[in-house]
Each structure stands twice: as structure tokens, then as C-alpha cells.
Amino acid sequence: MRFVYGLGVFIPAALVLDMAGASPSLVFAASALGIVPTAALMSEATEQLAARAGPGIGGLVNVTFGNAPELIIAIFALADGLQEVVKASLVGSIVGNSLLVLGAAMLAGGRRRTRQTFDRTAAQAQTGMLLLTVVALVLPSVLELARHAPLPVVSQVREMFGHDIEQVSIVVALVLIATYIAGLLFSLRTHRDLFNPVSGEDVSGGWSLRRSVGTLAAAGALVALMSELLVGSIEHAARDFGLSQFFVGAFVVAIVGNAAEHYVAVVAAAKDKMNLAANIAIGSSAQIGLFVAPVLVLLSFVLGPAPMALVFNPYEIAALLAAGLVATALVSDGESTWFEGFQLLALYAVIGIVFYAA
Stretch 284-306: mean pLDDT, rounded? Predict the structure, then answer.
């Protein structure tokens, strides 16, 4: 993590650039890089707190803070009315974890090994949740298509939908949250031995409870500060870079918000801990769809200019379904090779090319 923490110099740099009225592109780049070490610090503090609190409270901590950086970024974007950017970042996170992170982990772990193995049953449980996520997220869009209503346009920042589709989005969000809670019960209580959330390691040499909570609070404040700068400069920065806000949300913001998890998964796979790497990659994707996205839908009714409906554009729908189906197919046998990782990275690159051209 030392290299990641070295990026902390960009936190004061982003503040100075913003106060000096520098180019939005510079503020955007500095704040994006500044989020990475704060996200890593939040991730480490969460792990330390979960290790001390035990599996039950640890699960609650992971729900609350596991994807906190991205949730904070999205909340600021919602408040600014950038709903399509928020939805693009959600899709980008699910696709990025399922293809980029899992692919990079398989490639790094299989580079010097013929194959790696991981718990097939646990992986299938995770991918089952992932498939449920992507299908549930796209169904409101199918409802719009069945009514011959237009889907969102890539160039738009925000699009209004009817009251009925907003109500459908609320109900879908509540069902997804209930499913995620049931998934926590499954993995932490009734089938905890399958997911092995308790390592049995001695945590006496770890962080104290006060240090963990204090670090978590400080990291959360820094993430919020960097997120405000990032969102405030995203519109002008995208124009300066010649990129659409759609592409920036789906790839740049999504990668930045999950940088710490990406790093941990790849390092774990390189150490032949493929169970951990697969759980991070697939589990984080499922968490985005089952927890973060529904929470943002509910928050949109009190934040920003209008509610955010779970209606995605055609590119996002195709990317969600492709990522869910391909990731499920490649982990179903409980084995991975470097070539499977390369295939996932190749599909991620193709999706990136299409999103850029859109």
C-alpha cells in the first residue's frame, strides 16, 4: 500500500489548485488521484475494525463502508443533478469489478502458475447475486421499452421519467436491499463456514478500536472533500479532455472510487489467494448493485433536482448483462488461468472503446 499512500500529496495539491482558480482539468486530475489513498486508508481501517468487532458487526461495517468512496462521490453528483453520471459510475463499477479487477487478478495470479483454484460453491453464490443484480437493474429499462418510451441519451446529464417508473424504481430498490441483507445473513450467519469471514488470526497487534474509528472518520472526511472537488470539476474537465461525461463517469470515476479494492484483489491473486480475490471482485460488484445503487435511488428523492429512476441507456444495459454473464461463465468451474484473465480484460477494453465512441 506504500505506493498508493504516496499519492496523498495530491490531496493538498487539489485544494491549492481549487483555491487558486486553476483549470478544472487540473483540479479534476488532482482530486481523482487524491481519492485513491483516502479510499485505501478507509479500506484498511474498515478491515481492522471488522477484525476486532467480529463477523456480525464486521459485516455491518463492510456494508456501510465497503464502497463508501464511490457512494460519497455519487451523493455529491446527485446533489448537482448529474444523474446520468451517477448511473454511468454504477455501471462502470459493476463492469470494472467483474471484468477489470477479476481479469487483472486472474492474469497476475496465473502468470507463473498453470491454474489457480478457488471455492466453487462460494463463487457460484457470489455470481448468483451478481446475475440477480444486473437483471434486476435492467428490468425497469425493459418496462420503458415495452411502453415505447425512449431510454436516456448519452449526451444528457439528467432525464425526467414518469411518476410510475419512479415508483417502480423505489420498489426495486427496496427488494434489492432486502436481498443484500439476506445475502449478509447467508454469508455471515447460516453459511459462515463457506465464506470463512473469521480468519482466526490474533488481532492483538492490530489497530485499537479508537484508532480504527478515528482513521475511518478522518478518511471519510477526506474522501468527501476530494469528491466535492471532483464532482464540481467533472463537467468542464470532461470537455477539456474531449471526453463525454458518460465515459468519465463509467470509467474514470468508477476506477478511482474502487482503486483500493482493485489493488488488494490483484495483490491477493498474485499471492495465490484466489478465493479472496474472487470474493472481492465479484462481491463488490454485487454490493454496488444490491446496496449502493438502491440507496442512491432512495436518496435521490431528497437530494438534487429530481428523483433518479433505474432506467439505463442501451450501452449500459449491454455492458451490465455482458459482464454478469461472462464473469459467471468463467468462474463456474472453480478454476482460473491467465488466459481467462486476458479474456476478461479484452472484453473490458472493448466496452471501453464502445463507451468512448458513444
Answer: 89
